[in-house]
Amino acid sequence: MTEPLSGQAAVDQLLEVLDLKQLDAATFVGESPQTGAQRVFGGQVAGQALVAAGRTVDPDRFVHSLHGYFVRPGDPTEPIQFGVETIRDGRSFSVRRSTAQQHGKTIFFMSASFQVIEEGLDHHTPAPTGVPGPDEVQTMADWVRKYPSRRAAFNAAPRAVDVRYVNDPGWVPPGDRNASEQQRVWMRVNGVLPDDPLIHACALTYASDLSLLDSVLSVHGEVWGPGGVIGASLDHALWFHRPFRADEWFLYDCTSPSASGSRGLASGRMFTTDGVHIASAVQEGLLRRVGERRT
What we know:
It comes from Paractinoplanes ovalisporus. Belongs to the C/M/P thioester hydrolase family. Residues 167-286 form the Acyl-CoA thioesterase 2 C-terminal domain. The chain is built from six helices and twelve strands. The protein is α+β, with helices and mostly antiparallel strands. It has a twelve-stranded antiparallel beta sheet.
């Protein structure tokens, strides 16, 4: 079996995925990496949809929020077509609707808002204290050495982002996960990105979908896969508060305020290593027991 790409090679592959082909002023086409996955990773299609929207906006305007819905699983063996609708271009804000389609059907759609740089009130809640740094917690490779039976799950995960769990990850064997109300993860793109702020926003969008729903399982000490839970993202919202680089470490501090009706709600705050609050995310996901049948 071919070893998945890692480091800068994986980052370069991510950049290729985000480098959409433009067909006309409002239509773009993207591809998926061929990793053997059964469906397109949600963070990928959200990041690509943001690329498409951003390419239709004046580069002096920067994305400050996005709201998206995952409506169908994407086929990673087929191209994805993105259509962008200009909702408004005002003096300070531009709003776009970006729709991803395959086989003539929508798989994802997003509204994104872009703003010119302005000065104003500035405050944020402090970052959590007492959290070990990224060099003080286990790497994904460390976890695989501890649980070699989970190597397949590790190899199937996107490798362009270095993910380091402060708590137990959700893919340990059933019974080995300690319940926790917080799921904290250090992340960074595992290589160097271009300086384009849109690329960093798209990379952060991609990364924000990697572990957010895991905070729902963390509350219950539950895990993904056999003996645990399967899930899918239903919607995703992200707010960009301050300038950042996605190829520098940030802490993803996630909690779950509610789970019911086979759905779980998760929220996350992202902080730089020096405690600056750069972004916030909220996501709802479908969560079902493995082997559970729909009636």
